[in-house]
Fold Parvulin-like PPIase.
Amino acid sequence: MFRKGLAKAGFGTAVALGALSAMAPAQTSSADGLNLPSDLTIFGHADPSVRKATAIVNGTIITDTDIDQRLALVLAANGGRIEGEERDRLRLQVLRNLIDETLQIQEAKAHEITITPAEIQQAYARVAGNFKRSPTDFAAYLRQQGSSEASMKRQIEGELAWRRLLSRRIEPFVNVGEEEVRGVIDRLNASKGAQEFRIGEIYLSSTPDTNAETLANAERIVQQVRQGASFVAYARQYSEASTAAVGGDLGWVRGEQLPEPLAAAAQSLQAGQVSDPIAIPGGYSIIALIDKRQVLTADPRDALLSLKQLSISFPAGATRAQVTPRVEAFANAVKGIQGCGKANDVAAKVGAEVVDNDQIKVRDLPAPLQELLLNLQIGQATQPFGSLTDGIRALVLCGRDDPEVATGPSFDQIYAQIEEERVNRRARRYLRDLRRDAVVDYR
């Protein structure tokens, strides 16, 4: 299997204590058969905020609260659309990932590896920044989603601890030869112009005894993703490949780098599509085609554009009939734009807002807009697009820097990729051994 990315890290734990309680008497005939005393004393205190253990992993407790808070993050990534049996299955998978994370943190500490609070806070701030929030605002956002800052930090601790453990215990013993790297470079040059794919993968292992169950699970995942669920979120939770930590992203690969069944599936997919479960040795893979391009060939979609965006918005509750005259006036005005120098004047006449956008890569735009902009000449505008809710927009092409001919990855990049693949393969075996030797008490 072709594997690229960081070793998988699951989700974290927190410690909670269960409370003892006795059942209060019921004063109805339905309780007569229980022979309950009329004068009783309740021993212990039942606190609804305290949750009982779901699993104890080598002495470390995983609670319902831990699972609920991690599950909330997955549900938020999927827009809360997962319900019923699929939600229950996802909850079990979150528990398995929490167990893996606990084992990883425990193994790191056994080798005197400790992630300091300062390191965790620094990483947490970076994650918050990715969401364009301050750490304080991000904590509030997590609470709104039903999760918590502590849960996110535990996940961060697990990932950092596992990476550091692998860098000490596995990476020093992985060797990559210079001839191997030169061989990859030669094959890249020989395949110039051939297609390569950016692929996401979810890998599920199976045995002859579990094959049917694994296939059914894979089919359910495909169905959920095709109905709008997040492929990345499912990859993080379900995939047994080391790329799970990066949402299943394999990066850019050529067909010959993939097992033949995966290569054939990639050829048949369009960008954004997800394959059916693919049988491979040891289990099943589901792949999503993120993008495709030609090896060592300049891709027009890598061009950098300078754009002006003209937009109009409508009052809440406006109907299509009410806004049609304004939309038509906007479309006619945009059609008559002759160069970016006139865009601001045209916008003022139709009451449109103007926003300048420089250094926009074509491939980062939605697919329909990519085709429109690639066919425009400098100074021309796209057709209007949008909706009643979001408003109507048009883009004016003010400049374009075409991409240079691609030179391909460097020697160091290829070396790092081969090394990383081998480290990840050993990391999977390492985690499998930790699971085998662990004492896990399910409650």
The longest strand covers residues 283-294. The domain at 194-294 is CATH 3.10.50.40 (Chitinase A; domain 3).
